[in-house]
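job 3f2a | input accepted
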Amino acid sequence: MTTLPYHRVNVLTGTKSARLIEDAKEYALLVNKAKRPLFVLGPDILTKAVEGRPLVEYALDIARALDIPICATAHTQKKLLEMGVEPSSSYDIIEIINHLKNPAWQGVKKEGNHDLVMFLGVRADLAEQGLSTLKHYASPHLKTMTLCPYYFPHASYSLPNFRKGSQWKEFLDNFIANLKKKEA
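job 3f2a | predicted structure (184 res):
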């Protein structure tokens, strides 16, 4: 069965589409294999909640479990600083996508380009366009992954369309638990 994206924006460009992954353990394994991952946080993390818990709290739990650099986009940096978390960088979403396309870019910490980028909280239509750009111009040096409750066909790895908040909550809780298992 074919999975259609929740938002049908620029979905039929190219022959490659995202690998749909529903298992949080498999998602965690993919992230843990990355040498220099990056976590890009969009403004929706500040306004959305998952079954009553603010999405920003999930984002910070993921970042802490991975000890991963955070790129704050839009106005997310201020809220992260208020919560005691200093992002590694703050870029406009278009700006970070343009940097990620360049294989010679040294990354947000100047330690080398990133090999995996996770996106959370970026507006769906903008995320889809950015993922399309990265799919076509940053391959093969970069893989992309989304943590939003929608299927993004231009990502390397994507979640399915979660119809209920409880499904997304269960995935995020299991994902964080599996990331913490690596720490132990």
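job 3f2a | The radius of gyration is 15 Å.
job 3f2a | closed
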